[in-house]
Amino acid sequence: MDIFDFSDGREGYYGEYGGVFLPEILHATIEELLTCFRECKADPTFWQDYVALLQNYSGRPTPITHLENLSRQLGGAQIYVKRDDLNHTGSHKINNVMGQGLLCQRLGKRRVIAETGAGQHGFATATMAAKFGYDCKIYMGAVDIARQRPNVFWMENLGAEVISVEDGQKTLKDAVNACMRDWVTNMADTHYILGTACGPHPFPEMVSWFQSIIGMEAREQILKQAGRLPDRVYACVGGGSNAMGIFQGFFDDDSVELIGCEAGGQGVGSYMHSARLAYDDASVGVAQGYKTYFLQNDQGNMNETHSVAAGLDYIGINPIFSYLWEQGKVRFEAATDTEVKEALKLTMRTEGLIPALESTHAFVTAIKEAPTMAKDEIILINQSGRGDKDIFTIADALDDSKWKSFIAGKADQYRTENK
Amino acid sequence: MGLQAYIEERKKDKDLLVMAHVVCGYPSFEDNMQELEIMAEAGVDLVELQFPFSEPSADGPLFVKANEESLKSGTTVDQCFDFMKQASERFPFKILMMGYYNTAFKMGEDVFVQRIKASGGVGYILPDLPVEESSNLHKLSQQAGIEPIILMTPTSSDKRLATLGEASRGMVYVVARKGVTGSKTNMGDDVISLVKRCRQHTNVPMGVGFGISSKADMDFLRGTADLAIVGTAALKTWESSGAKGLKVFFAELMA
């Protein structure tokens, strides 16, 4: 199956989803990007350089871990985890960023901008910019800055300028708008490093291409380690880049079921969630440069979204998934905030793993389904990021009194120093 | 009378027409109506009514805030069309819908066209809808006799301008510079040469917008453009000095 083999006149479309919906002023910039991307994709040395860079800089290939304790405790399928949390900067985001960094060299641009939600993409972009010597500006919603300060700290210390976006809902979608506004002004020397498989063509294809390294590795590894293909593969879906990454490894394997796990927030009917396909609240629309399912009202204005995981708190879904969902190729489920906190505790205690809140959404669905499967069946979860960054949110969720008094003590100390 | 004929007719009496802009429901529809009264009195020729959208990614800070506040106060598409109807019946200037494509997509392109027509609008500007995605909407518009306004920009190649020129009807919106709405544009030779370049690819009238705020800008555009498009500067004036200020603003601008 090659979803990127577009028919004539339908370049950038997956079924009726995708496309390019941008102001005319960006037409030439997008054409330039598309031409450059096509050259990179057709050039085998580009991919070799990309893989070598990730091996030397980010620790790829990331391993697969068999969760024997958790599998035993649940009494069903054998659970394996693809460890993209072990990447440098702590998530799969670095894959796409390093790829676009190399592409940016070919474009000959010296400045990069990026939006970020949880801060993982911004962190990865700031890291790449430091290594490649690009000027770097990161746009981040004020609400997200408040909940992900550790990532902001690292971005700034890596030399990036972090701009607090005060418009709209002050989260990821508003950071995307802010990037668009920067790009329409500075496109001559600036490349927009979009962090997920959303936005106008060629971003969904390009980000999916860079992230496909996850699935390529994972397929080979699971065959070697478990002796056969998995029965089900689970990945969390915000924009959908880590899920596209791992799923692509199994697109041609009809026996493998692919499950995307969205942010159920406060649950069905709460209207405080980010589940575009798992719940019934989204409809097809056009925003942020592409056509897909959006959480919007009947007037076409976007609804407020919510998730305990900032990286999943987004209105739209990758257009490729809208198509694959319609085709029955990918199943979508949602995990609520409460379920996520419970699954995180369980995973930490039984396996010593700390998945990011985003990635834990995939664990929730896998943990629900594993007991209904046979002991010789195999589950593969993409642990797309590590949870250290979430220490403030998790400590709050667990109501950890020792952490609270530590923070209070730190606050007192800073207050005294400032006097 | 079609938009192009209207512009040509008005140009018999003055050499540079003015298109103004309001964001529907911001600060309120009552304020909007007062703004339009002042614009009509000053002799404004065309007005864009912006339908607020939650993701106005082509707009600058002032219009972003205006879109946001308008939606927060509960502005609906129905209210915007009602307002368009009232305004088109009351004022001599022609009215364009301005907004983002999702507003049209969500109600259906055919309904969108029919509602503009029924509300007395003569066309629409959808800055995030490229010409590649417009064929059905343009066909429906032609059948209904309303005009899709094409944008031409400083980054458009001659090849691209030829494509855009082919699709243009009524008038062309020439974007004077890169960026979003609301920042100052240094009017210089590049704006003149851009409009000249655009004219090679279409014979519809040229409106120039983005960053136009003063009589000096108007004087500069005279002889180059057919219309000057004034957006943010008028809203800024309304916010800082109300009806009185806006009267002075347009009086000075159009002196």
Description of the molecule:
The complex is a heterodimer of chains A (419) and B (255). Chain A is α/β, with parallel strands linked by helices and 419 residues long. Chain A folds into two domains: 14-55 and 92-203, Rossmann fold (3-Layer(aba) Sandwich), CATH 3.40.50; 61-90 and 213-397, Rossmann fold (3-Layer(aba) Sandwich), CATH 3.40.50. Chain A contains 15 helices and 14 strands. Chain A has helices spanning 27-42, 44-58, 68-74, 93-107, 120-132, 142-147, 149-157, 172-186, 203-226, 241-247, 319-326, 337-351, 357-369, 391-397, 401-418, and strands at residues 13-14, 17-18, 64-66, 78-83, 111-116, 135-141, 161-165, 190-192, 232-236, 257-265, 283-287, 290-294, 330-336, 378-383. Chain A has a six-stranded mixed beta sheet, with helices on both faces. Chain A has a four-stranded parallel beta sheet with strand order 7-6-5-8, with helices on both faces. In chain A, α2 crosses α4 (93-107) and α4 (93-107) runs parallel beside α5 (120-132). The radius of gyration of chain A is 20 Å and the shape is globular. Chain B has eleven helices and nine strands. In chain B, 49% of the residues lie in helices and 14% in strands. The mean pLDDT of chain B is 96. In chain B, α2 (29-42) packs parallel to α11 (232-253) and α6 (109-118) packs parallel to α7 (135-144). Chain B has a single domain (3-253), classed as Aldolase class I (TIM Barrel), CATH 3.20.20. Chain B has 255 residues and is an alpha/beta fold. In chain B, strands 5-4-3-2-1-9-8-7-6 form a nine-stranded parallel beta sheet, with helices on both faces. The chains are: A alpha/beta (419), B alpha/beta (255). The A-B interface holds A 19-29, 167-168, 173, 176-177, 180-181, 184-188, 283, 285-289, 291, 296, 298-302 and B 52-58, 60, 64-65, 68, 71, 76-77, 100-103, 105-107, 127-133, 150-157, 160, 164, 175, 178-180.
